[in-house]
Specification:
Elements (H helix, E strand, L loop, with lengths): L1 H6 L6 E4 L7 E2 L3 E2 L9 E2 L3 E4 L5 E2 L5 E2 L14 E4 L11 E4 L3 E4 L4 E4 L9 E2 L10 E3 L7 H9 L4 E5 L3 E7 L3 E2 L9 E2 L3 H10 L3 E9 L2 H10 L4 E5 L10 H7 L3 E5 L3 E2 L5 E4 L18 E5 L3 H20 L7 E4 L11 E9 L8 E4 L9 H4 L3 E5 L9 E6 L15
Parallel strand pairs: 7-8, 15-18, 15-19, 16-17, 19-23, 21-25
Antiparallel strand pairs: 1-14, 2-14, 3-13, 4-12, 5-8, 5-9, 6-11, 10-11, 20-22, 22-23, 24-28, 25-26, 25-27, 27-28
The structure holds ligand LQZAQKY5 and molybdate ion (MOO).
Molybdate ion binds next to loops.
Catalytic activity: adenylyl-molybdopterin + molybdate = Mo-molybdopterin + AMP + H(+)
Keywords: Magnesium, Metal-binding, Molybdenum, Molybdenum cofactor biosynthesis, Transferase
EC number: 2.10.1.1
Length: about 400
């Protein structure tokens, strides 16, 4: 549902210079703007030769990378050549310097092994022809894609703009610094959500801490021009849980109002009215920012982040949906009677012929972050639980796995 909502509008396209395009999604396929290589190139330092040897050469003369075209090589002659230099017309092979003997006195080049026509020449167009598709639309621009694009002649890339996300942290009990005291606790979600959403490709503003103030929340939602607003806390029905009443007052459409998952069951997805679409003034469904309401319990918030915010952002940014993958779980994992559980797990390589698997981590309560901080992903545990040796679906975390310090966290 979240992925479909994100894909509902046509993705916009902007052109960004290479040094600003990293992490964006390609809005169009990249076709080569040139043949690669764009000329017949020497693959080695050595000699360009024409015809069978031995070959006559001129002492001192040589071809270097970065120079213009050389004159054609007459049959029976050789010229020194550097790796990356243009191979002169009529060259039949390149001989590596260590495989040749140059008799400088006589100006003759001899070879110590058979020469195969075309050896150590990278022919023009070996990697691609001009116009050939190199990278499909929807690809994430990685450092390697940037390198390929530069090699193929690009100065700028057509990309989907990063989705813009505003983060609003709700709760009067939250401290931005220092130790917990007098019933006040540290805000664990503000510091976590910005970097996490950036790792998902978003441009993030905030977090803004609004306390438990319905008016401030309503003002912030009305003023936002983001693609997505992420709120934390206030999703339940407690005395100061303002998210539902404020969404109602703003005429927002609730697309997801609670999910049968633990932790995280009060998570919600809504769409606000656009600024020119105040309630009653315009017909039709809301067209303003999306809102993902994350529950206040920190691991419950992670659950909503992975299952609502991540697919929604992927849809807005034009990223293809991740293929779900499954892994064997080592250990019985208890389930909730009727809801799905998300449980932090780490990947483990199979030892002594055993298969690779995941192991569940302790400290997986809704208010705890100790398990997820050590985890590689969240295992999706069906209602009723799973037995050791069962395959479970894994929701990945958007950073590199494998930390050596999970000891003590295993169940
Ligand atoms: N009567 C019921 N009460 C609750 C239910 C329920 O089904 N019936 N569900 C519980 C579950 S599960 C969750 S999760 C929470 C969700 O509540 P809210 O989204 O309204 O969150 P808050 O009440 O504001 O906070 C819950 C909890 O999390 C702490 N918190 C909040 N924000 C942060 C933060 N930024 N960093 C760290 N900790 C945070 C807050 O202090 C509370 O302890 O509702 C249950 N109640
Ligand atoms: O499901 Mo709550 O969302 O347990 O923490």
């Amino acid at each position: 549902m979240a992925a479909r909502a994100g894909r509902a509008g046509p993705p916009a396209t902007i052109r960004l210079p290479l040094d600003r395009a990293l992490g964006h999604v390609l809005a169009e396929a990249l076709g080569a703007l040139t043949d690669l290589p764009s000329f017949d190139t020497s693959a080695m330092d050595g000699w360009a030769v024409a015809g069978p040897g031995p070959w006559a050469f001129e002492t001192g003369a040589g071809l270097l990378a970065g120079r213009g075209p050389a004159a054609a090589l007459p049959d029976g002659t050789a010229v020194r050549i550097a790796t990356g230099a243009r191979v002169p017309p009529d060259t039949t092979a390149v001989i590596r310097s260590e495989h040749a003997h140059a008799d400088e006195d006589k100006g003759m080049l001899h070879v110590r092994r058979p020469v195969v026509t075309g050896q150590d020449i990278r022919p023009r167009g070996q990697e691609c022809r001009s116009g050939e598709q190199l990278v499909p639309a929807g690809t994430i621009v990685t450092p390697a894609v940037l390198g390929l694009a530069a090699a193929a002649g690009y100065d700028a890339l057509p990309v989907v703009p990063r989705p813009r996300v505003d983060i609003l942290v709700l709760g009067d009990e939250l401290l931005a610094a220092g130790l917990p005291h007098d019933g006040l606790i540290r805000d664990a979600l503000g510091p976590m959500l910005g970097p996490w959403l950036r790792a998902l490709g978003a441009e993030v503003s905030g977090p803004r801490r609004l306390g438990d103030d319905a008016g401030a929340l309503q003002d912030a939602l009305t003023a936002s021009d983001a693609d997505l607003i992420v709120t934390t806390g206030g999703t339940a029905a407690g005395p100061v849980d303002h998210v539902h009443p404020v969404l109602d007052a703003l005429g927002a459409e609730l697309l997801v109002d609670g999910v049968a998952v633990r932790p995280g069951h009060p998570m919600l997805l809504a769409r606000l009215r656009a600024s020119g679409q105040a309630e009653g003034q315009a017909e039709g469904p809301p067209e303003g920012p999306y809102l993902v309401g994350l529950p206040g319990n920190p691991l419950a918030a992670v659950s909503g982040l992975l299952t609502l915010a991540e697919p929604l952002l992927a849809g807005i940014a034009g990223r293809p949906a991740q293929d779900p993958y499954r892994a064997l779980v080592h250990a019985d994992v208890p389930g909730h009677p009727h809801d799905t559980r998300l449980v932090p797990v780490v990947h483990r390589a199979g030892r002594a012929g055993g298969r690779d698997h995941v192991a569940p981590l302790r400290y997986n309560g809704p208010a705890m972050l100790r398990g997820i901080a050590a985890a590689d992903g969240l295992a999706v545990v069906e209602p009723g639980g799973v037995r050791s040796g069962t395959e479970v679906e894994i929701l990945d975390l958007p950073w590199a796995p494998a930390t050596p310090w999970t000891e003590g966290c295993f169940t």
